[in-house]
Amino acid sequence: MADLQRYISGLRHNGLIWILVPGVFFCWGFTSTSVDMVIPRIKSMFDLSYTSALLIQFSFFLAYLFIPIPAGKFIQHYGYRQSLFIGLACTALGVLLLAPSVMLQLYPAFLGGIFIAASGIAVLQVTANPMILALGDPLTAPRRLSKGNQHLATSQSWQKCPSKPPRVLFVRNLMSAPRPGLPSKLR
Question: Residue 83: inside a domain, yes or no?
Fold first, then answer.
């Protein structure tokens, strides 16, 4: 118990953690709100039915069903810092898988990328919520968690961006000239 108290005390005085944790809140708020916005675009790119397009949300939120308990076990075994790293790496991997799956017109791979990114976000949430509670005074912990981070990050994430997603988010728009060997939808 004394080791845990010493570890948390060291984190409280680490300036980087006070920047990293709210940044993580902003990133997952941005990613979570962007899922709904890209559904119509992905629906047209893959020629999907409405039901098939909603599998994007289903695969995103399915991660919240399966990942939190293993993430909690991971935190118990390896700690907060490693869990934050794994969550960020998993989210980045999932997002990086999206562009090739669109280019190759592989919808199951796209859903897999969404699930992997959402798994990373679930790990981040399971890690950052108790971490932000432990970093300050226990009396002000609920205020730090509810007011300062999650809601502000989610509400501000798309206000910092244009009302439509940037064209860079979509691989199709990056390839305006026809290129041999690409599917016709990407030309």
Answer: yes
Q: Which domain holds residue 89?
A: 21-139
**Where is pLDDT greater, at 176 or 78?**
78
Query: Is residue 87 one of the residues assigned to a domain?
Result: yes
Q: Look up tokens 């199951």; give the residue.
A: 108
Q: What is the pTM of this model?
A: 0.70
Q: How many domains does the chain have?
A: 1
List the single range of 19-28, 68-77, 90-99, 166-175 with lowest mean pLDDT. Answer: 166-175
| Angle made by CA atoms 154, 160, 165, in degrees to the nearest 5 | 90
Contacts of 116 (CB under 8 A, 6+ apart): 90, 91, 93, 94, 97
- What is the token pair recorded at 89? 């790496």
- CA separation for the pair 27, 145 (Å, rounded): 16
Classify residue 159: in a domain, yes or no. Answer: no
| Whether the Cβ atoms of residue 115 and residue 57 lie closer than 8 Å to each other | no
The residues near 43 (Cβ < 8 Å, ≥ 6 apart) are 50, 52, 53
